[in-house]
Amino acid sequence: MGVTEGTMTGIPPVVVRRALPTEPAVRASKSLFLAEAERQGLKAGRRMLYVGQEPAPEHIAEGLRVAAGTGVIARRKLLTASDVPVRIATSYFRADLFAGTRIAEPGFVRPSLQSALESLGHAFGHAEETLIARPPTDFERETLDLAAGEWVVQVLRTSYSTEDVPIHALETICAATRHIFTVTQVTGHDEF
Q1: Can you tell me the distance from the alpha carbon of 33 to that of 165, in angstroms, rounded to the nearest whole number?
Q2: Of 45, 105, 158, 192, which is the most buried if we count CB atoms within 10 A?
């Protein structure tokens, strides 16, 4: 699949770089996507699509260590580059930890989600990232304005506190033809 296939839907071709793992300086920014896009010279945009409780899909429930179908807080937004939809990012949080906090309130969390988590007493311990390429769901195809046959890349980053409590599962659905995934290793240990 070539990058230019996005033009089949009338969308101009655009390519965004997504670093794996996410660089700490970018991760600590106000918005991971806004920081990434700015570094690449792209006009970034974001729009909140949904904030509320929904049943945890199996892969999210596993990371958050709750039963599948358990109500979790979802914060879903659409990310654009040069007005082209490129990602759907959904943050999932355990309702037993975050219901009734500003994490569950509509709109963007200011100044950042990271600062809100820290103010609630959660210190970052470690994270796990998985990446899966797959056909899009109908919602993903429509929201990202994908052409027939285009795939998505699903990046799931589950973050745990220093006490090994699952705090945040971030599922990012990327339009595969609009992304390049840069994979880096620990400095001084890169190998082919």
Answers
A1: 25
A2: 158
